[in-house]
Amino acid sequence: MPRTHKGKTIAATPPDATAQWVGAGRIVRAQVWDNLVLATAQPGAATFRCVVIHDPRYRGPLVMATNLPVSAYALWCLSRDRWPVEQVPLAAKQMLGAHRACVSGSESRHRLPEVVVLAGKVLTYVAATTAAMATGFWDRHRRPTCGRLRRVLLRVDFSEVPVPAGSLRKKASVTAHLPKGVQGHRRRPGMLTLPAHSLRRRKVA
Asked: Among 18, 43, 71, 98, which has the minimal tally of Cβ within 10 Å of its Cβ?
């Protein structure tokens, strides 16, 4: 693409192919560069394509690098379909704060993303199906968004949330092999519950 460096204009690299189509009444144009490599690539490295899409609705072009052997129109459609998919992780990570959660267990690394995606879907669905709520007097153009719903929920005390009667789901956990009652918390001989230096202090006192 044309650019300026130290006051000099560098001409754009001629594209290998061009394409255009009509989307929602607008003429969208695309430029394609094939068989590209990084500046630090070694001989025989994998190549990729660069597609620059000019949409009249936006000020700047959409630049995409890909290794998919599809047309520029297909890449444009894939980009448009990507943003609805990004809504759920956005609601879960940024609105619910899941981006600050860290786990290290092998099972937790699977369970945390599952819970995060489920919570993001619930928040998005509730925000889209309920009436739009304003978060303050300044919110004159309220919309049914996740952020507004989250701010409203922050003002609700947890004890005021109605709880349905009965259990939501019975967890069929296997506990027959675990000790019960007193046996479950009985200490074994020789087990220390306090550090040794703490026990020595108590004996001296």
From this structure: 43
- Angle, nearest 10°, between helix axes 146-154 and 108-129? 100
What is the token pair recorded at 42? 């070694």
Strand 8-10 and strand 3-5: the pairing is antiparallel
Q: Consecutive 10-residue runs of the chain (205 residues): their mean pLDDT? A: 86 92 91 92 91 92 92 91 81 84 84 88 89 84 87 83 74 81 69 52 47
pTM comes to 0.52
Q: Is residue 82 part of a domain?
A: no
Domain match, 21 and 59 both: yes
Query: Which string of b and e fits 137-150 if b means at least 16 CB within 10 Å?
Result: eeeeeeeebbebbb
- The dihedral built from the CA positions of residue 87, 88, 93 and 95, taken in this order, carries a sign that is positive
Same domain, 150 and 105: yes
Annotate 133-150 with DSSP letters as a single string: --SSTT--S----HHHHH
